[in-house]
Amino acid sequence: MTDKKIYSASTTAPVNIAVVKYWGKRSVKLNLPTNSSLSVTLSQADLKTHTTAACSSTFTENSLWLNGEAQDVSGARQTACFRELKALRKKLEDANPSLPKMSEYYVHVVSENNFPTAAGLASSAAGFAALVRAIADLYELPESPTELSKIARQGSGSACRSLFGGYVAWEMGQAVDGSDSYAVEVAPASHWPEMKAAILVVSAAKKSVSSTAGMQATVNTSALFTHRACDVVPKRMEAMKAAIENRDFEQFAAHTMADSNQFHAVCLDTTPPIFYMNDVSRAAIRAVEALNTHEGRVVGAYTFDAGPNAVIYYQEKDEEKILGFLGTLLAPEVAEWAGKYAKVTPEGYDNGSFEALKDGVSRVILTRVGEGPIRTHDSLIGADGLPRKR
Amino acid sequence: MTDKKIYSASTTAPVNIAVVKYWGKRSVKLNLPTNSSLSVTLSQADLKTHTTAACSSTFTENSLWLNGEAQDVSGARQTACFRELKALRKKLEDANPSLPKMSEYYVHVVSENNFPTAAGLASSAAGFAALVRAIADLYELPESPTELSKIARQGSGSACRSLFGGYVAWEMGQAVDGSDSYAVEVAPASHWPEMKAAILVVSAAKKSVSSTAGMQATVNTSALFTHRACDVVPKRMEAMKAAIENRDFEQFAAHTMADSNQFHAVCLDTTPPIFYMNDVSRAAIRAVEALNTHEGRVVGAYTFDAGPNAVIYYQEKDEEKILGFLGTLLAPEVAEWAGKYAKVTPEGYDNGSFEALKDGVSRVILTRVGEGPIRTHDSLIGADGLPRKR
């Protein structure tokens, strides 16, 4: 008698925002990077992907639904993840013939983000981390998050870091097959739980250059890139790990800002040049600088991924200053907390420098360092093996 | 009997726009650069400083008027130029006692730009070149433009290049006293007279970071800067000289654009980051790229100095394409030539990418490669030794 059961597992996975940036691949196929990177995992209370993976002998193809829309799963990225996870499952089944033959079944995956995909918020990292974690749970794989991170990496490079909470390094590795290019925990969220983040969502047209295309253009044409990848980042990785170890926000902030700027500098040094920041992003940089100068110490650290959104890291003890200042700069409907904190107005505050923020920032997400993927019983897949109606 | 005569000499001097950028000083006092640079001298028909220098035993102090306004001449930059020029005059007088003792007289200098100083058009380069050339003429100094360029360099680094027309290199030199840091002609304007330039004047707030302060911040904090100065620019200087020698616009353009982008990249890699380009500048880059793609060859090359203005170099044979395209992008009152050329609309022309240009470009100056300083009998100083009323 054939097993017609629908097996399923569900997880949520977090977004991560790098403070030492990943930019450049030494292998596009395997998503092997030209330098190591380091990120902070953000709380799933604010940003998460919720994913259910199911398999059954009754399924007739691999399928993926994201936010209710069926997606193409024939791409190399998805295919690699499915293949590698099934191979690990197969090993278990070979060792224990009593296990259901899930490795032979098609998979259904249903994913939902609790934030707008289009906002440029590293949704692919959370998405692939959730996909890999959910299928690994479905298959009851014993592999560690670091082992699984090598699979998530092949889906989306930065996804490997979303398999851990807290402070996470992606060690670039040296092996041609990618076997030593994986994520490791630098410190859990509980080591430095005071780390918070304000994400200034900047309205912008669609990205003009995809990350993969942009990275490879930089690798191929930037005269400055090799120096960054080979000389600057290795030292910065060590300095950043030490800053996290010592909960030294000033060092953490200095490297975070310098690394973001250098990443965008090598983008600009690309032919043709790549721009992700715009005038609103620049106004956000000036605002953070003005506040740090006003306070006489570093209270905020900005960083920008491959888009115009500003992520401002700060420590909980400085929340009043950060949010008070943002409350003076942003439109009242955006800075919903504005009434809660005293306004902060630096000396020499030049409204003109920051006015782009009032029009350009459409939303602020307040969040903090958080945990890695969390298993849940909240299934997105119904008894028919299809996305549950919500 | 005392000589009460007012001696005077007048000159005009050009603006130059670098295609290999000067950024970084190894000596701030002597304006000695960390890398060589190369520029195109622009026609004085469109942009020039007109300067008269006079001296007399009756003058009671060194004075300088710029565009009708008395200026402070006590600064180190002006003082160095006056001192060095007087020293050269003194040598002449010592060798020939019959010469008037001009080296003992105070100097009056009157300068007028035929373009708005505030437009960010390298006015200090033309200004110091004209000042040095006019005083050298007043003193009847036999020194070559290269010798005089060492003096102009101390006024404003890039001024040394405005003592020549055509294509001009500033060789960085090695000597601690600056004796081998001077300008030389790479080729006269007549070698490649087809070189034209469209300057898109972008309205912007005052520069937030002065060039000198910005340069030194980059030298002190950018991890990528040394690689640019020591490894990239020396090769690019040779490549650019070859491109000019061969009138190879494609090579000239490739290096011009890459060098501008790299200069702004090291500005961005500075702590805190320095931004001179804005969203309008970026739209100008996208426009030039779109046109080059449309034409299937490089017809235009953008470059940006320490400000948002775009300078687009092109060859005369492509004027119709460049001006036709700019005519489609810019506001009609700015693109006054628009009726004269057919509009050029690239395939895949996305109005949204360029709309910042329509609002952001307030004026276009059409010019071309031109001559070095030109002596004139049009004196700006009256018989009373003061600025002539105009």
UniProtKB/TrEMBL annotation, chains A, B:
<dbReference type="InterPro" id="IPR020568">
    <property type="entry name" value="Ribosomal_Su5_D2-typ_SF"/>
</dbReference>
<feature type="domain" description="Mvd1 C-terminal">
    <location>
        <begin position="198"/>
        <end position="374"/>
    </location>
</feature>
<dbReference type="Pfam" id="PF22700">
    <property type="entry name" value="MVD-like_N"/>
</dbReference>
<feature type="domain" description="Diphosphomevalonate decarboxylase-like N-terminal">
    <location>
        <begin position="13"/>
        <end position="183"/>
    </location>
</feature>
<dbReference type="GO" id="GO:0005524">
    <property type="term" value="F:ATP binding"/>
</dbReference>
<keyword id="KW-0752">Steroid biosynthesis</keyword>
<comment type="pathway">
    <text>Isoprenoid biosynthesis; isopentenyl diphosphate biosynthesis via mevalonate pathway; isopentenyl diphosphate from (R)-mevalonate: step 3/3.</text>
</comment>
<dbReference type="InterPro" id="IPR053859">
    <property type="entry name" value="MVD-like_N"/>
</dbReference>
<keyword id="KW-0753">Steroid metabolism</keyword>
<keyword id="KW-0067">ATP-binding</keyword>
<dbReference type="InterPro" id="IPR041431">
    <property type="entry name" value="Mvd1_C"/>
</dbReference>
<keyword id="KW-0456">Lyase</keyword>
<dbReference type="InterPro" id="IPR029765">
    <property type="entry name" value="Mev_diP_decarb"/>
</dbReference>
<dbReference type="GO" id="GO:0004163">
    <property type="term" value="F:diphosphomevalonate decarboxylase activity"/>
</dbReference>
<dbReference type="InterPro" id="IPR014721">
    <property type="entry name" value="Ribsml_uS5_D2-typ_fold_subgr"/>
</dbReference>
<keyword id="KW-0547">Nucleotide-binding</keyword>
<comment type="similarity">
    <text>Belongs to the diphosphomevalonate decarboxylase family.</text>
</comment>
<dbReference type="InterPro" id="IPR036554">
    <property type="entry name" value="GHMP_kinase_C_sf"/>
</dbReference>
<dbReference type="GO" id="GO:0005829">
    <property type="term" value="C:cytosol"/>
</dbReference>
<dbReference type="Pfam" id="PF18376">
    <property type="entry name" value="MDD_C"/>
</dbReference>
<keyword id="KW-0756">Sterol biosynthesis</keyword>
<dbReference type="InterPro" id="IPR005935">
    <property type="entry name" value="Mev_decarb"/>
</dbReference>
<keyword id="KW-0443">Lipid metabolism</keyword>
<dbReference type="GO" id="GO:0006696">
    <property type="term" value="P:ergosterol biosynthetic process"/>
</dbReference>
<dbReference type="GO" id="GO:0019287">
    <property type="term" value="P:isopentenyl diphosphate biosynthetic process, mevalonate pathway"/>
</dbReference>
<keyword id="KW-1207">Sterol metabolism</keyword>
<protein>
    <recommendedName>
        <fullName>Diphosphomevalonate decarboxylase</fullName>
        <ecNumber>4.1.1.33</ecNumber>
    </recommendedName>
</protein>
<keyword id="KW-0444">Lipid biosynthesis</keyword>
